[in-house]
Structures are given as structure tokens and as C-alpha cells.
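Note to self: the last two entries modelled the partners one at a time, which told us nothing about the interface. This time every component goes in together.
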Amino acid sequence: MTQPATGIQRLEGVLGALKKQNRKALVAYVMAGDPTPAFTEALVPKLAEAGADIIELGFPFSDPMADGPVIQAASERALRSFPGLNAYLAMVARLRRVTPVPLVLMTYYNLVFRYGEQAFAKAAAEAGLDGAILPDLALEEAETWQKAAEAAGVASVFLEAPNTSAQQAGLIAQASRGFVYLISLKGVTGSDKGIGEHLDQRIDRLRKLTHTPLLLGFGISTPEQAHTLGGVCDGVIVGSALVGRMAAESTDAGKEQAAVALIRSFRQALDA
Amino acid sequence: MTTHPNRPGYFGPYGGRFVPETLISPLREVEDEFQRAVNDPAFWEEFNALLADYVGRPSPLYFARRLTEHLGGAKIYLKREDLNHTGSHKINNTLGQALLARRMGKRRLIAETGAGMHGVATATVAAMFGMECLVYMGAKDMQRQSPNVFRMNMLGAKVQGVSSGSATLKDAMNEALRAWVAMVDDTFYVIGSVAGPHPYPTMVREFQRVIGRETKAQVLKAEGRLPDRLVACVGGGSNAMGLFAEFLPDQGVELRGVEAAGQGLTAGLHAAAINGGQVGVLHGSKSYLLQEENGQVLEAHSIAAGLDYPGVGPEHAWLHDTGRAAYVPVTDQEALEAAFTLSRMEGILPAIESAHAVAEALRTAPAMPKDNVMVVCLSGRGDKDLHTLISARPQEFHS
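The predicted structure of the combined assembly is written out below.
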């Protein structure tokens, strides 16, 4: 396979190939730097080998307002030894050299705003980030960031929620690059109140508006759930379940082992 | 002049609505209902009647004669928001938002609180309207403002401690925003300051505007002219915005916001977002913000829990940039000194937040001509701060 020219193309290539094989995408979320940057750097290729199609890489923020307690705690752990954004981007660049797995950033807008939207998009693309999810940057405030990301070839991924209006859903479907991130429930990451109703209708609505893959996240905690939900969308994002599983282990080796085992079980469930 | 013409919710480049998609629809619903209420005379009629009969408005504009004579400069008037029901200006806004919540059919109010005054004011109106109330409060603030925790409990509200991050106001606001997402169907989020995502900065200003409207009429009656200078403390900045809004077109009236300088701007331990921060995005709006080079938000430091916030309302950021208002720092020590001075010279114990504004008056009044008029917003009363005052100056407290 030829090397993709941009991050957007890399994401589209991977998700397109899965679709052709009629397989569901598995996205594994990890918080970079939890508990240390070195641990994350070693972990990412192993998660790809274990069956993750895309890695969503969290960059910690002091005030993660879309996140539940599990990822908040991960964010606080990562911030204890936070070496700065450029050090994180350097880690991404090293990862890019050892694995072709798409890397999608998830962080909060202030980090990007402070760096400068254009400068950040350029630095992210150079490091090898293929996309970015900024959960507190809803579409109505995202115009300049969209342009900067597009120019750098970085996919700006937007989120659609259970209470998104029909009109807004149309705009999100058109704007989102790589995939559309469907928030499964009205809540924060890692919520356990179950997947919201009307999921089928939301997916139908989006399917009529776009061919972009639809990936579902927030609160997907078991392989069984992933199997069921994989039936209605193009893939699932596993975050808090993975981060929480690792946090329960005390050693780096234990964390890595538990993470690889969990991703394997999700992979099997999605392929079954 | 203070609103960007083509972008609702913006004050120059500041403000906006930087929130997760899950909050976009709820915020638009609040915005739409607020617009309908603004244009509905019956809404304002009920609001004004409750301000009069329940809150006790108009609050007096008191000429501080002894203080004025002591300082020997400008005439100092105190706008007595501390005399409102619940003891601060916060009730003006919670009443307005509770009326809005009722129009929208919500049965529960949630709120964040720092010093506890906004929490108490929310719990109060929730009780009065027969609504449930849940208040998020930093664990550190629950300790230093314990009397207000008990008041909220007495009013039937549940106080949810927040121990993430710095365990103060900013973390309480994070948690309230998270919680709102999950219970938005039957819940209204009562934000206590001119901060947060659109429409809150505008809406809270409009509900607090009564402070300045009364002040204008009262000072015209007392002095026959407009004041030379208005002074108010600024955390998020709701009492200041409420006082300033009505005077924005009066260019001859100097507007001065007072930021909490904690242990001093150079020491780095302060809560002065305009004086010591850079532009950033927190809690849904773009404004000045205390942050490190990567954009991680820094912990604020102030003796006043109600000012202990790393951001500031977006309209204040714009008033600063345009030069319409000036923002000056006052340290913990200066505020403490002012609390003692006002207590002993006028028999008024100010909230430690409001004491920051008083300190600015003590500092600047002597240099002003005797025929000048200065109005200081006394945004709250200081009973809640006795514990803090005793810790700071134990030698002053003996039988």
C-alpha cells in the first residue's frame, strides 16, 4: 500500500478498507502520559497489534468538562509529569515511525487555541496525527479550526449527540472528516446509564446525509455491548473501560497486559 | 458598542459558546426562552414584584460619612447589595433564572458556588418556587465557607462536594456542566456569574442590571448628577457588570473593576485574570484566563472564595480592551484591612469579596477632589467570613 499523503487520507483508507471487508472499526482511547509518556509510547503499537484499528490519543487538560471520573483521573495523573505539548508531539512523531495505525488526537480547545490553530494543525500533521477531536469545540465555533485542519490535512472530527437537532446533524455530517463521532448518551465519558434511545433513528438520519463512517462512543464498557452496537454503526470507541482497566493495575507490565487482553476481547466481539 | 454586531454572544472577540455538542441544544433552548422573556412585559412585572417584596429592593445607596471624612477626598457612597435577602447581589440573578426555569417547565435547579452566596441564593429561590436544588461546591470552599453549606442544607438543597482539580469554584463549575448534560431534560443550570457559554454572560448581566439602574436614580437624587467613579470587585464579575451596564453610555463615569491579587501579582498566587492572565477558553467562553504556556488552566489564589476563579466574564475582557473600564488588583492583605476599616468606621461588615472594592476606595478616594462622587458596590455581607477574619487577625478577636 502506498503511503497516504495526509492524515485524512490515512483515516479514510483504514476505515474504507474495513467497510469493504464488512468489518467494524475498533478505536482504542488512551490518555497520553498516563501514567508516563514512555508507557504510552510503548503501549500504542501493542494495542494496534491486538486489534485496534485507530488509536485515539488523549492529551491531558486541566479542566476536562466532557469527561467522567475515570478519564478525569487519567488526566490528573498525566498532568503530574506533563512535559508540554511539543514533547507530546515528538512522541507522536516517534510512534508514526514504528506503526501505521491512524492516530487521532482528543483534547480540549484551549490547548489548540493557545498554541495557535494554524500552528497547531501544522505541527500535528508534521508529527503524524491524522485527526483531532476537540469535544468542547462544537461546530458553531469551529470555522477557523476547520480551515486550519483541512489545510494541514488533519481530519477534524465532530461529535453528534442524542439531543442534536436535525438541522445541526446535517451540518455535522457535512463537516466531520474521517468519521462522525456519535455520542451514545446524554452524559460524560464513561457514563453507565446505558446507551440512549433513538440510536437507530439517529443513524438513519445521518446515513441519509453522509457516507462518512459513523463511530459510536461514550459508555461502551463491554465486548458484548460493542458486538450489539457494532451491528448498527461502523465501529465503536472504547475509552473509559480501557483507561479504568489499566488504572486498576499497579505495574506498567500489568497495565499493558490488561489493555492488550481487553482490546483483543473487543476485537473478537466485533468480528464475531 | 459592547456587542459584536453579527455574532450573538460575543463582546468583541470574547464570549461565544465553547461547549460539548450535548450542551448546544439546551443552551439554545435557554437562549430562546430568555429572548421570549425579555420581550414579555409580564415576565418583568413578576420579576420586579419579587425583587421588591421578596428581595427587599431597592437596596439603599448609603453615604458613608465617617469614611469620607476620614479619607478626606471624594464622597463615598455604598450600594448596599449586602442588605438584600440572602445577603448579597446573587439573589437578583437566581430569581430571574428561576422564573425562566419555571417558564421552561424545569423542576430542578443546579448551580456551582464558590463562597456559597450564589449557592444560597439558588437554594432560596428553589425553595420559594418548590423546585429541587443541587449545588456543586469545591471541597476546599465547603471547609472555608461552612456556614453557607449549612444555610443551603437548611433551605432544603443538597450540596455536592467536588474534590477534583483544585477543589474550588472552577472545578465546581466543571462538575455542574457535566451533571447538567446528564439531567438536562428536567433541570435548569443557574450560572452565578457573567461567565460561561452564551447566553449566560448576557442573561446574568440583564438580571443584575437593576443594581446600576437603582444606583443611577439614587445618586441623581442625592447629588443631582452622575457619579465620577464606580468601583466593584470582579471574580467572574456579576456585581460589577450589574453596576456598570446602566452607565456604559455615560462616558464621564469612570468604571473600575477590582481583581483579587491574592498574595500579589509578582508572587504568582492570585486570581487576577485580566491583570495577570492571557486570552483563553474555559467553561464555554473566551476571555482572559490564568494559564501556563501550554494552555493548562492555573489554580487561582484569593482569600475570597467568591473571587477565587482563574477566568473573568467576557464582557469585562472587552471593556478592558476598549478602555471603557479599568481593572486594578487588590491583595488579600489590603482587602482584610478594608474589612476591618469599614466594620469599625461605618458599622458594616462587608463580604471579603466586597472588601476588595472597599480597599480600592480607601486607596484612591484621598487623591480625588472633595466634590467628586464615588460609588462602591457592597456586593455582600461578611458574616460568612468571620472564620477567615479570625484566622487572619486572631489578635483582634478577644473578649
